[in-house]
Amino acid sequence: MNYSQNLLRELPAVDRLLKEAVLEESLQNLPRRLVLQAVKDTINSYRKRIASSSASDQLSGQINLSPHVLAAEAAALAENYAGMNLKSVINATGVVIHTNLGRVPLARAAVEAISDIAASYNNLELSLKTGRRGSRQEHLEELICDLTGAEAALVLNNNAAAVFLALNTIAGGREVVVSRGQLVEIGSSFRIPEIMISSGARLAEVGTTNKTHLRDYEAAVNEDTAAFLKVHTSNYYMVGFTAEVGTADLAALAHRKGLLLLEDLGSGVLFDLEKYNLPAEPLVQDSISAGADLVTFSGDKMLGGPQSGIIVGRKDLISDIRSNQLARALRIDKFTIASLEATLRLYLDEETAVNEIPVWRMLTIDSDTLQQRAYALAERFAEIFGSDQVGVTEGFSKVGGGALPSAELPTYLVTIKPADGKIHPTEFAEQLWRGDQPVILRLQQDTLLFDPRTIFENQEDELVEAIRKVLNGQ
Ligand SMILES: *Cc1c(COP(=O)(O)O)cnc(C)c1O
Question: Are 319 and 152 spatial neighbours (Cβ–Cβ below 8 Å)?
C-alpha cells in the first residue's frame, strides 16, 4: 500500500463537500451546474497533486485534505466560473492603443450613446424627417463628410473590411498597382497581398522595398489596370535611402491614365499631431484634397471610437460599394453607429475631442501630471511593499495598435521590485492578471512596471487593492 493510494482514499466526495457551509452558500447564489463543476474540478486537481507529489510531501502533511479546505477552494473557483469571461482590465502597460486589450476605451458620450440605444427601440432605419424607411448610414455620413471634406462616406465593420470591399468593388478581376515598400502586414490575418487576392483584385507590384518612383507606377499600367493602391505603412518606418510617391502626384497620374487611386491610411487622424509633439501622420482630409478617390481608415485606432472601418471619397464609387452584395455581410450594428456618431460629434471641436476622447487625453497628458501621478501611486504602493522595493523611473509609453511606431512618449513608471523571498515577480504579475480586477503590466527582468499614462485615475484604488490582495495571498 503506498501513500498516494491512502491519500486518494481520503479525498472527500462531491456530496460531502456540498454539505460545507461555504458551498451551501454558493449554491444559493450561483447556478448549481457551475458550483458542481467547481467542486469536481477541485477534487480532480487534488487527485493530480497527490499523484505527482513525493512521498515525503505526503508524509509531512503538505497536502491538507480536510473538506473545509477543499470546499473553500471550490467556492472561490465557482465564483470565478460565474464571472464574465470578457471583463474590464486595468492597462498599466503604457500602450495606448492596445489591440489585445480592446484597442481603445470610448469617450463617455460614446458609452452613454450605446447604453441609451441598447435599452430601447430606435430610428436605426427609419427617417424621422419623412417617416419612411431610411439607411443606417445616414446617421453618420454627413458628419464624416463634414469632418473630412469628402463627398460621401460608408462605414463597415473594420478597416480590413473597408479595404476588402473597396477593392472588390472597383477592381475585382482587374489589376491594382502597389509599391513593394507598402506590402505590409498589419496583424497575422491582415496582409495587403492576401487581402487583395481574396478581394478578387490582382496585385501588380512595382518599385523596390525602399524606393518607388512615379515612373514605376506609370510603367506598370496596362489595359487591365483598375487602380493604384497607396498604403500608409502605419506600423513601421524606414529611414535612409527611401522614396515613395505622394498622394497628389499619384492621384494626378491615376486620373491622367483613367484609373482610380485608393489610399489605405490605417489610423484615421483628423487633426495635426505635431501640435501635440507627436510625429506627423497623414490626415484624412489631406488625402481627399490631394485627389484620392477613396480613402479608408479605422474607427478604433487614433480616431478613438468603436471598431469600424470608414471609407470616404467619390459619391459614385461609394454608391457602387454600398450596392455590392457583400456590403450587407460587413455592415455595422446599432451600437457601432451610436458610439461612432457620439465620438465624431466630439471632433466638431478639436479641443473637446482632445479632452474627451480617452486616446487623445492619454496621448497628450503633460509630463508634470504623469510625474505627480507616478509619485502618488508609488507612495501608495510603498505602504504595501515598503519603500525600499518601490520607486519611480523615467521611461517611454507607446502609441501601439500599429500607429506612430517612431513616437517616443516620455513617461514616469512606478516600479516594484519585490525583495528576495517575498514573491517572485513573474508569479506576482500572473496573479495580478488572474485577479478579480485583472491588471496587465510590463515586467522587465525582475521589476514590475506601472505606467500611469494608461491607468485611469478612477482605477487607482482598485489597482492598489489588487496589489494588496496578491501580497496578502487572497
Ligand atoms: C490597422 C490597419 C488596417 C486594419 O484595420 P482594422 O480596423 O484593424 O481592420 C488596415 N490597413 C492599415 C494600413 C492599418 O494600419
Answer: yes
